[in-house]
Specification:
The protein has 15 helices and no strands. It is mostly helical. The longest helix is centred in the middle third of the chain and has 28 residues.
Length: about 400
């Protein structure tokens, strides 16, 4: 490995170092002083920033891993293979960050191993714990060929290639299970959640929204990595993904509004509360706007249009998860929650660590495929291709 430029300090490297240092200091304070002294969490409001962002958002944004893997290996649409490895890396790092955030959030993190030997199959948290552990292991195996290729380890590489399809199937099953189970956690508190977010179909809403967010995260990650590593954006592939996002957003919006109507909860949108304002912002900015933007071919085939539309999808997804875990809970104890400085520092530190780890791995391992021999596209131009045809020869 060559490490030229690794120790060269740039503005963003300095920002990442500062954020990670602050996060480490805050984590030391959290473990030494306890949750009560370092967070604004209380018995009546035990879930805050770390659950709403670090765990619910982190897991959802990593959903692009099983989605793209299924597209490439199960549906055999091989033309999406160039964006598979960076997507798997994003998902793998996302799950590692979720685990790190969970270890900070748990009151007794040293007892996390109890789920391995003390089984409680009737607990949703038990199912989430096992699915997260197993899917993280699956993502590590799916990404391991990159490491084997780097160090020219032919035998384990052949073994991994032989079990790729079973691994992908297992990954899709595990990820689907715990994406819905995270929503199931909220089913036990119908009286505490605001009617705009509580629903019997929360698990289904979590699955739909995570698919859209995972694909949007793949688009945003592709743009940032192309800028950071001087690569050409796979615009035709990303444009095709955006078509899928349009369908998923339409399904999500329809199901969400229909659910509110069936529960007679649509009336809460028109009440003069900050919950209704946040709900309208979540739906309009994160669902309706990107849906209509991505309907237009000129937006999907334009770099800036595609990028900012994907960003809106991500913001809507984050808003939904935060509103579900935090905003919807605030009306019951009549208490407004604001995260403490330590909570913010740990969350930002984890995010900085994730960006830094991706940049480091992508720089020194074969995460990106070699540039195609096809002539490069001009800015804003998209090469026509059939939508979802079988990929033999594509």
């Amino acid at each position: 490995m060559k490490f030229e430029g690794l120790f060269k300090l740039t503005f963003w490297k300095a920002v990442a170092i500062v954020l990670m240092a602050l996060g480490l200091i805050a984590a030391i304070q959290r473990y030494s002083m306890g949750l009560g002294a370092t967070t604004n969490l209380v018995d009546t409001f035990p879930w805050g920033l770390w659950i709403g962002v670090d765990i619910l958002v982190g897991v959802g944004l990593a959903a692009g891993g099983f989605t793209i893997a299924a597209i490439v290996y199960l549906f055999n649409i091989r033309r999406f293979h160039p964006i598979l490895r960076p997507t798997i890396l994003t998902a793998f790092l996302g799950y590692l960050l979720v685990i790190m955030g969970l270890m900070v959030d748990l009151g007794r993190p040293w007892a996390i191993w109890h789920a391995i030997i003390m089984w409680n199959p009737h607990s949703v948290m038990f199912e989430v714990a096992w699915c997260v552990m197993l899917y993280t292991a699956v993502l590590a195996l799916e990404f391991s060929p990159v490491v084997f290729e780097k160090f020219k380890l032919e035998r384990p590489l052949k073994i991994l290639k032989a079990i790729t399809i079973p691994l992908v199937i297992l990954g899709v099953i595990l990820s689907t299970l715990h994406q819905s189970s995270l929503g199931s956690l909220f089913l036990i508190i119908p009286g505490r959640m605001h009617p705009l977010w509580y629903s019997n179909i929360i698990p289904f809403l979590f699955i739909i929204s995570c698919v859209a967010a995972g694909l949007a995260m793949t688009i945003v990650e592709s743009f940032y990595s192309s800028r950071a590593f001087g690569r050409e954006v796979e615009l035709p592939l990303l444009s095709e993904l955006s078509r899928v996002i349009v369908v998923v957003l339409a399904l999500y919006f329809t199901v969400r509004i229909q659910d509110l109507m069936s529960r007679d909860a649509l009336q809460y949108i028109f009440q003069p509360t900050y919950q209704s304002a946040l709900f309208i912002g979540e739906i309009v900015l994160g669902v309706v706007m990107p849906f209509f933007l991505l309907l237009f071919e000129r937006v999907r085939s334009n770099r800036k249009g595609l990028f900012y539309s994907a960003v809106l999808v991500l913001l809507g997804f984050v808003a939904h998860r935060v509103n579900t875990a935090i905003t919807s809970m605030e009306h019951w104890p009549d208490r407004v929650y604001l995260p403490s400085a330590q909570e913010l520092c740990i969350t930002l530190g984890l995010a900085a660590f994730g960006f830094s780890a991706f940049a480091l791995i992508a720089r020194y391992f074969p995460v990106f495929e070699q540039k195609s021999e096809t002539a490069p596209l001009k800015t804003g131009e998209i090469r026509p291709s059939s939508s979802l045809e079988p990929a033999s020869g594509t």
